[in-house]
Amino acid sequence: RIENAMDGVAHLTQHAVPPGETFDYRFRAPDAGTYWYHPHHVSWEQVARGLYGALIVEEEDAAAVDRDLLLIADDWRLDDKGQIDEKSFNALHDRAHAGRLGNVLTVNGQPTGRFDIKSGERIRLRLVNTCNARILSFEFEGLTPTIIALDGQPCAHIPLADGKLRIAPAQRADLLIDMTGDPGSTSAISEISQERLVAAEFAYLPEVKVDAKERPALVLPENGISAPYLAQALRVDLVMAGGAMGQLAQASYNGKDLPLRELAQTHGMVWALNGTAGMTEKPLFTARRGQSVVVKMVNETRWPHAMHFHGHHFRQTGDKPGPWHDTILVERDETKEIAFVADNPGKWMIHCHMLEHQAGGMDTWFEVAS
């Protein structure tokens, strides 16, 4: 939720940094939590090449854990020589389907991540999905993690009774895990979205055990996000259309209504938000500073979309307020309604974080008046 001038969206908040030039990002980090950064210029290629990093903002008082660990998961599309498959960049097929899916998974840059821990320790595991498009599903062998934060924001504890976690591109989850294995044993973290594979493992040090006394509940301090007032909220519809097996016949692009064949073959556009492919000159909506906003997202496509909002955190509407997010997965044929307070002035992007979907038309923006 930093200031708009530091948001780094090429052609919206600043020009892309030219080769050989520099730009200093200077900002105050208002929220403790787990974040990450990446380019917003040709992001479908630059992120796939590994241009990103984690950004951890620590709480004023350190959380009561024995170890704070980071797990950055990514999948890479490699060719038969083990190099990044450059020929497949910008493929129209990827844009119109699930996005660029890799064939090799890494954790912290390694084919199999390894965490040396002690039996009895309590750890905080910060998990980040940096994949271009893959929705990751993790299973923690013999452990019961508890979600304590999502997308950087603390949340009411969510125990994963089955040890499984599903996380979309750009999402983060902070897990609290009591390490209950025996000294000298191992516990796998498997990725199970397709065939099961060991993504990482906890390796218990031999003959070492921490005295796990009764521990107080870990409650992370909230970051002070204002709750939206739904009764007087600005209401906005965001309808997603297009993609393979979709019903999109035409869409507006650069102010012209074009048939899907021309959109795809000439411009690489295969998706539309509210009937428009790609960024527009006018914002999707303009909100007064401090105004509550409700966005109803309707997925009329045959594919899931990880919808990411810049500059704000939101939560789903419903009987009980849910966790705060900045990225939410909207499944095929699903409708989700989210709400937030537009309290951060500037021009803010909304896009699908399946980066090929963004490149293929799924991006727009909103403005918060100063």
Write the topology of this structure.
Layout: E1 33-37, H1 43-46, E2 53-57, E3 67-76, H2 92-96, E4 104-107, E5 113-119, E6 122-129, E7 136-140, E8 146-150, E9 153-159, E10 164-167, E11 172-178, E12 186-191, E13 197-209, E14 234-242, E15 250-253, E16 256-259, H3 260-267, E17 271-273, E18 286-287, E19 291-299, E20 305-309, E21 315-316, E22 327-330, E23 335-342, E24 346-352, H4 355-359, E25 363-368
Parallel strand pairs: 3-6, 5-13, 14-19, 18-25
Antiparallel strand pairs: 1-2, 3-4, 6-11, 7-10, 7-12, 8-9, 8-11, 12-13, 14-17, 15-16, 19-23, 20-22, 20-24, 21-23, 24-25
* Most strands sheet: 6 strands, mixed
Structural class: mainly beta
Proportion in β-strands: 35-45%
Mean pLDDT: 96
The global form is globular
Instruction: Record the strand order, biggest sheet.
Output: 4-3-6-11-8-9
Helix count from the secondary structure assignment: 4
The low-confidence parts are none
- Gyration radius (Cα, Å) is 21 Å
Q: Write the H/E string, N to C.
A: EHEEHEEEEEEEEEEEEEHEEEEEEEEHE
How far is the N terminus from the C terminus?
15 Å
Beta-strand segment tally: 25
The amount of helix comes to under 10%
